[in-house]
Amino acid sequence: MDFVSGIMFQDITTLLLDPKAFQDTIDLFVERYKNKDITVVAGTEARGFIFGPPIALAIGAKFVPLRKPKKLPGEVISEEYTLEYGTDKLEMHVGAVQAGERALIVDDLIATRGTLCAGIRLLERVGAEVVECACLIELPELKGRDRLGNKPLFILVSAV
């Protein structure tokens, strides 16, 4: 755990430096989603980009990046969300996801749920069904899970 300007965050670097542990992590996600007819894996910037593409490739789904403002070329739709320390937005390319597609949203961790909720709203606005959200780490004391409503959430590690 690291601290920057009063913000506490979990660091996944040690996992990424261990190829076996990283592969095992991806394999756990793939095992869960390989038979759920997921057509879209949406990864939130930035660490959702680490886990999302290998999961998408392994299950035969496309990967759609959910990015911070003004990072995607072309036409986008956006959703604002609240962070522990302010507000931000996520954007997605118009046309990247079609109505009726089954989506998985991937991020490295869930804290207050803002990023995941913005991703859910983006995907649902275009008519996709968000099947589940998947995160490597949960910070349960921040109660982000409680704020997802009825959306299922899969977590590999709970940081207590």
Automatic annotation (TrEMBL):
First-listed, main subcellular location of the protein, grouped into a coarse class: cytoplasm
Enzyme class: transferase
Documented EC number(s): 2.4.2.7
Phosphoribosyltransferase domain boundaries: 18-147
One GO BP: AMP salvage
Record organism: Papaver somniferum
Record-linked CDD domains: PRTases_typeI
Complexes and interactors: Homodimer.
Name of the protein: adenine phosphoribosyltransferase
Pfam families documented for this protein: Pribosyltran
Alphabetical list of InterPro entries matching this protein: Ade_phspho_trans, Adenine_PRTase, PRTase-like, PRTase_dom
Pathway in which this enzyme or protein is active: Purine metabolism; AMP biosynthesis via salvage pathway; AMP from adenine: step 1/1
SUPFAM superfamilies tied to this protein: PRTase-like (SSF53271)
GO cellular component, one term: cytosol
Keywords from the UniProt entry: Cytoplasm, Glycosyltransferase, Purine salvage, Transferase
Source taxon at top rank: Eukaryota
Membership in a protein family: Belongs to the purine/pyrimidine phosphoribosyltransferase family.
GO MF, any single term: adenine phosphoribosyltransferase activity
Subcellular location(s) of the protein: Cytoplasm
